Every structure is written in structure tokens, then in C-alpha cells.
Amino acid sequence: MVGLTSSELEEYEDLTRVISSLKSKIIEDDDSFEKFKHLLIRRARIIAGAEQKIPKLLELIKTLISSGEGKDNIRDILIYCAPGSHLEVLRSVASLGLRCHEFVHTVSLREREKVLGHFASGDIQALIAIKCLDEGVDVPSTRVAFFLSSTTNPREFVQRRGRVLRLFEGKSRSELYDFIVVPNAFCLDATMRLETAKSLLRREMPRFAEFSANALNQFHARSLIRDLLDSYGMLHLMDERPWELYKEIKRDNGFDDPA
Predict the structure, then answer these.
(1) What pLDDT score does 206 carry?
(2) How much is the pLDDT for 247?
(3) Strand, coil or helix: what is 181?
(4) Torsion angle, CA of 252/255/256/259, rounded to 10 degrees?
(5) Which of 3, 12, 111, 164 could form a disulfide with 145, with the two C-beta atoms 3.0–4.6 Å apart?
(6) CB 177 within 8 A of CB 146
(7) Span 182-237, pLDDT tens digits
(8) 204-219, pLDDT tens digit by residue?
(9) Are 65 and 71 spatial neighbours (Cβ–Cβ below 8 Å)?
(10) What is the pTM of this model?
């Protein structure tokens, strides 16, 4: 779980105010509808690219390295990040001494095959990817996956999880870290920010509900977020299935989530 910085929250709320003012005025074929969609995309990108995600990622990888395996034995790591952030993620992870490679649209199909082969053999320890799991690419050797960027669309995030969970020789399970943006102290000082906090939880919790329900550590995972949800009177989100919440969000926005 990560929070938003004060500047990210301020931008998020500014966009929310404009979105709310436009919502009752738009006509689907009007220019205002295009502006409305553009604003929703900008707001979703704040969540996708939240500044605190990379420091949290590095903290988790350092924990893996110090767990006894050592950096030379760390392998089979997939890091799925937001568009525009993969180079920063690549540099940051490489600074820990891991052999990394980008896996993005600029990598040719022939090169992708080579990269996946080196990844499966362990020559490449970590893949830094954008949308590869949406393009029919399986990465079955993945043992540890970090989802820094995700979507509210259940079909997409369940598919991404499934591509990581594919069977592979010598692999008995996968560890999946889904970076959920949750309210922090900045959300507690005004009514508008209380509504922002609730909207963040409503957006992020469907993935948590789906992933934790099928995880080996579901009870531990749920215990980490229970008090936070309870403080906002939203414990029900822990058990609501993602399709119901997604349909509600889609209905409110007027089209699919852009993240």
C-alpha cells in the first residue's frame, strides 16, 4: 500500500472538481465529452504513477535480496509499470545490482523472443514491462511480479495475473505484489478530501478483493487493510466482487476506466 504526496493529492482533487462540474453537462458527441475523458485519463495517471511506488518497490526488492538469497540468486522478477515510468524503474532496479531489461513496444518481436529466453534462463533477472501482459505474451517463468500500475477492469487485471501464474518447470508458486494507492493523512483534513479518500478505496479495492480471495496469505493481507477500511466505514469493499464495483465506476464515468 502506498499513499499520494500532497502535490499529487492536490492535483487529483483539482481534476476531480472539474470532472464533477463537467459530468452533468456532457453530451457524448460533444467536445465536452472528449475533455471529460481526457481529464479522467489524467487523473488515472496520477494513481498509476504515484511517486511513492518506486521507493516501495526498491524496499521490497532489497528485502528479497537480504532474505538470504543474495542478489546473484534473485531471478524471475517481472515489474509491470505505468507508461512513461519504465526507464526510471529500470535505472532504479539496476542500481541495486540486478540484471534488468525493458520489455516494451519498442522491443521488436525477434528481440522479445531472445529477451524472454534470457529471462527464463536467469541471465536477465528482472523484466521491466509496460502492457506486455495485455498483448498475449506469457511470462511463465515469473516467480515474483510487481504490479506498479494496474486497471479497474477485472477482465484485464485477472488476465494479467493469469499470465504470471502459468505453470513452469521447477515453479511451485508465484508471489504477486499489487501496489494499491490508499488514503493517507492528507485525506483527513477536509470534507472534500474525505470523499477523495473514499473514491480511492472504491477504485483500488476491487483488485485487492479479487487477488486476496485467491491468495495463500489472504488472511494476513486482509488484516493489513481492515483497520483502514473500517476507519472510513467501507469494510464491505473487502468482500465485494470486482465486476459489481467496476460496473458502478463505469456507469459513473460513462466509459471504461482509462488506466
Answers:
(1) 85
(2) 67
(3) strand
(4) -80
(5) 164
(6) yes
(7) 887 555 555 657 888 888 888 888 888 888 888 899 999 999 899 989 988 999 88
(8) 888 888 888 888 999 9
(9) yes
(10) 0.86
Q: Is 2 helix (H, G, I), strand (E, B) or coil?
A: strand
Cell of 240: 465485494
Contact 180, 207 (CB under 8 A): yes
Host H or E run for residue 223: helix 218-231
User: Residue 115: how many CB atoms within 10 A of its CB?
Assistant: 18
* Concatenated DSSP letters of 96-150: TT--EEEESTTS-HHHHHHHHHHHHHTSS-EEEESSGGGTT---TT-SEEEESS-
Spacing of C-alpha 126 from chain mean position: 17
Angstrom distance (rounded) from CA 247 to CA 190: 28
Matching residue, cell 485519463: 41
How many of the other CB atoms lie within 10 Å of CB of 52? 16
End-to-end CA distance of the chain: 18
CB 201 within 8 A of CB 237: yes
**CATH architecture of structural domain 53-178:** 3-Layer(aba) Sandwich (3.40)
Q: Classify burial at 160, counting beta carbons within 10 Å of its beta carbon; exposed 0-12, middle 13-18, buried 19 or more.
A: buried
Alpha-carbon distance values, 173 to 10, 164, 176, 185 (Å): 40, 10, 10, 36
Query: Which residues are bridge partners to 80 per DSSP?
Result: 129, 147
Q: Where are the domains of the chain?
A: 6-50+180-253, 53-178
Kindly report, residue by residue over 15-51, the tens digit of the pLDDT: 888 888 877 676 655 677 788 888 988 988 999 899 9
